[in-house]
């Protein structure tokens, strides 16, 4: 279109075309498109492999373990349907559809029977699967070898490499969220410090140019609360994909089809976000976002970068048909609704938006970029397995007293922090602290900040941890993280030896 416009002359095509591109926003749009393309195509870099199957996972035993895990999930779903006597999916009756439409903005009051439902799986179930992994090329000398996953040939960063990667975070003096624990009672930009006011003014200029890489660099020093949503959307590219029409279509799919997954999501929200005094007020919007997410077939694109596969199951009908279930291919685990990933470990993002449409697309972009890695078996360095290995190596090499104390009492360190890693700390930190942490994930395009923070927290609570000898008592020491300042802990861990 631009090349055919009056601004471009055929006599000097190249020069006038470049000038026309520079005049409008096309140059920025092109730069952003290249930025997002490079990120998406580099999201699953692996070694050179033989075929498409191994391009997603080069280790046969991990690929087979993922397939076995998926079959176990499918069997759990189907057995639950048989026990309860309901279908995986069916058309809603007109009465049911009308009731749901009437209560769309207050779905927490929508009546549904949940008593006999159970989660398909919980983080602890997935952890047992990781513990059961076996490298056929590695001879186990004793059961003690599982303490550090040394039998899995996954390369992860060392502490010096992490310090280099997060060097701006380590050396920053003016870092938002560094010295105070702010409460998200308001999104107003009033009553802010002079430093934050300057950051807001600079952030507005950055957002004005709409250049995603610049926004990402700006985010490395923290996000003002009133700009965070816009910064995330720009960096994740969700602002360019927002479609009210598509969201409306997803809503219609929710209204027309009743799925077992809907009930699992409703029960999960009731057991998690609704019992959290920080998030319960967002229960209704969580229902909307999560239910629409299950119907979004665009999410299937995540399987292009994942070792997992969507479940194919037979749906009852005339004739019976085999289909992906649920339509987005994602089976929720217990605590899934605490992602506004629902990869955004869901509830906290409600603070950022008033309109559920941009909320949904930012949540979806976060899931497609990051959170999907936390519940699949993969050799990718930022998969949940890679993060567990990174945590254990950091703890073993830099907090040997804690490591030895856990070992001597037969407590596997990863059992202590796995729920933090798999949920991205959602539900464990105060909302503002959690959002500061997720700022760093987006700014540095890395989930490796999660195990780094986990080690820093154990180091900070070391004196208390060394006084207890059971997993239950260790959990009691770590149950309340509300007093922690996340940015301070990360800086301390990055500036020198992890000694708090």
Automatic annotation (TrEMBL):
<dbReference type="InterPro" id="IPR000195">
    <property type="entry name" value="Rab-GAP-TBC_dom"/>
</dbReference>
<dbReference type="InterPro" id="IPR035969">
    <property type="entry name" value="Rab-GAP_TBC_sf"/>
</dbReference>
<protein>
    <submittedName>
        <fullName>TBC1 domain family member 19</fullName>
    </submittedName>
</protein>
<dbReference type="Pfam" id="PF00566">
    <property type="entry name" value="RabGAP-TBC"/>
</dbReference>
<feature type="domain" description="Rab-GAP TBC">
    <location>
        <begin position="222"/>
        <end position="445"/>
    </location>
</feature>
<dbReference type="InterPro" id="IPR042507">
    <property type="entry name" value="TBC1D19"/>
</dbReference>
């Amino acid at each position: 279109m631009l090349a055919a416009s009056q601004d471009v002359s055929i006599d000097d095509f190249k020069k006038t075309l470049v000038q026309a591109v520079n005049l409008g926003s096309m140059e920025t749009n092109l730069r952003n498109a290249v930025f997002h393309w490079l990120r998406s195509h580099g999201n699953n870099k692996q070694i050179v492999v033989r075929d498409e199957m191994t391009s997603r996972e080069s280790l046969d035993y991990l690929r087979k373990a993922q397939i076995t895990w998926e079959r176990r999930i499918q069997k759990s779903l189907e057995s639950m349907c048989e026990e309860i006597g309901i279908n995986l999916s069916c058309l809603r009756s007109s009465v049911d559809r009308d009731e749901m439409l009437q209560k769309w903005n207050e779905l927490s009051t929508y009546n549904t029977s949940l008593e006999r439902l159970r989660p398909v799986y919980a983080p602890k179930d997935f952890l047992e699967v990781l513990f059961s992994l076996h490298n056929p090329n590695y001879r186990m000398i004793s059961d003690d070898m599982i303490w550090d996953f040394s039998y899995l040939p996954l390369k992860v960063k060392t502490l010096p490499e992490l310090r280099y990667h997060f060097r701006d975070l380590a050396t920053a003096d003016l870092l938002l969220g560094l010295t105070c624990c702010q409460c998200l009672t308001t999104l107003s930009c009033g009553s802010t410090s002079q430093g934050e006011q300057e950051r807001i003014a600079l952030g507005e200029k950055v957002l004005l140019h709409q250049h995603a890489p610049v926004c990402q660099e700006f985010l490395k020093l923290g996000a003002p609360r009133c700009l965070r949503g816009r910064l995330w959307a720009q960096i994740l590219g969700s602002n360019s994909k927002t479609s009210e029409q598509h969201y409306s279509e997803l809503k219609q799919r929710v209204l027309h089809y009743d799925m077992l997954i809907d009930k699992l999501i409703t029960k999960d929200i009731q057991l998690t976000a609704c019992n959290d005094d920080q998030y319960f007020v967002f229960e209704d919007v969580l229902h909307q976002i999560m239910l629409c997410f299950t119907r979004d077939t665009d999410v299937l694109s995540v399987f292009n970068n994942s070792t997992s596969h969507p479940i194919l199951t037979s749906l009852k009908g005339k004739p019976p048909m085999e289909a992906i279930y649920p339509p987005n291919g994602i089976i929720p685990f217990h605590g899934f609704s605490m992602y506004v990933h629902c990869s955004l470990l869901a509830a906290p993002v409600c603070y950022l938006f008033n309109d559920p449409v941009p909320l949904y697309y930012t949540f979806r972009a976060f899931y497609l970029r990051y959170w999907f890695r936390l519940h699949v078996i993969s050799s990718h360095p930022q998969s949940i397995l890679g993060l567990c290995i990174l945590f254990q190596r950091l703890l073993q090499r830099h907090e040997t007293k804690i490591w030895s104390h856990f070992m001597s009492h037969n407590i596997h360190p990863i059992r202590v922090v796995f729920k933090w890693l798999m949920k991205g700390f959602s539900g464990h930190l105060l909302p503002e602290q959690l959002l500061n942490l997720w700022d760093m994930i987006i700014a540095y395009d890395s989930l490796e900040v999660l195990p780094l923070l986990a080690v820093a927290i154990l180091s900070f609570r070391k004196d208390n941890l060394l006084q207890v000898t059971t997993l239950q008592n260790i959990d009691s020491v770590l149950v309340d993280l509300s007093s922690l300042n996340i940015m301070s802990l990360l800086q301390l861990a990055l500036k020198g030896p992890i000694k708090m």
